[in-house]
Amino acid sequence: MDKELLIIDDDKDLSFIISDMLEGYGYSVTCAESADEAFSLLENKSFKLILLDINLPDSTGFEICKELRRVSTVPIIFASARTSESDRITGFDIGGDDYLPKPYSMKELLSRVNALMRRTYGFSDKETVTEFGDVRVDLTARTVTKDGKAVSLSLKEFDLLAALCMHINTALSKERLLSDVWGAFSSVEPSTLAVHIRWLREKLEDDPASPKFIKTVYKVGYMLEAKQ
User: Fold this and answer.
1) How do beta strands 49-52 and 143-146 pair?
2) What is the DSSP letter of 3?
3) CATH number for the domain including 159?
4) For residue 164, which of 205, 126, 125 has the smallest C-alpha distance?
5) 13-70 pLDDT per residue, tens
6) pTM
């Protein structure tokens, strides 16, 4: 399972402690110390959850959240020393999913991150393998086999396949897939998504021209159709 997290906080020491703890529980963590750095990362990479401080040197966490919510539904946990009721209400009103006041324990942070990941993506450690036809996708190991033989996928091909696997039999819009796979602020065009879908079909479908599993949904986007 892809468990990429982004921490946006100008406290380097705290970010290091949090990263070290979360990585010990299977998460992959990237840190940004400012809004500019965060948006630069978000242009080129997608994240499954963002831990967001409010007081930043060049902006506020509230402004970052507002911008993100224009283009993305990525889960956001505010983590801040600003603990007033008005700040907490603002955080939720603009699209935050949780609000954790500083100081907090690492145990509580881990519990909240795990809970939000479960609510958002509906996964458990036992639900990381998806099978359709003779294809087997292991989201944790990031491996794919077809008829028992390993299939080589590029980073983005696998990320796209993983996004479809996490929403089996659900049509995902092109905009949602572009945001989830290439990043909320990426300038990648829908044509790039279409090319990657074609490549996946060529590698995983018996008849790429008439796909049985990776379906196009008219006027919506794409869907992985499979028995569960």
Assistant:
1) unpaired
2) -
3) 1.10.10.10
4) 205
5) 999 999 999 999 989 999 999 999 999 999 888 899 999 999 999 999 999 999 998 8
6) 0.67
DSSP letters spanning 13-68? HHHHHHHHHHHTTT-EEEEESSHHHHHHHHTT---SEEEE-SB-SSSBHHHHHHHH
Q: How many domains does the chain divide into?
A: 2
Residues 85 and 143 in one domain: no
b/e per residue 119-129 (b: at least 16 CB within 10 A): eebebeeeebe
3-state SS class at 98? strand
**pLDDT per position as a tens digit, 63-119:** 999 999 887 888 999 999 998 999 999 999 999 999 999 999 999 999 999 999 888
Half-sphere exposure of residue 141: CA atoms within 13 angstroms, side-chain side: 10
- Could you read off the pLDDT of 161-209 as tens digits, one per residue? 999 998 899 999 999 999 888 887 778 899 999 999 999 999 999 999 9
Q: Which residues contact 173 (CB under 8 A, 6 or more apart)?
A: 220, 221
> How, if at all, do strands 172-173 and 149-150 pair?
unpaired
Residue 143 tokens read as 């491996």
Give the Cα separation of 115 and 219 in Å (integer): 33
The reply to whether 135 and 117 lie within a common domain is no
pLDDT tops 70 at residue 124: no
- The letter for the amino acid at 42 is L
What whole-number distance in Å separates Cα of residue 181 and Cα of residue 167? 14
Q: Which of 121, 139, 164 is the last residue of a domain?
A: 121
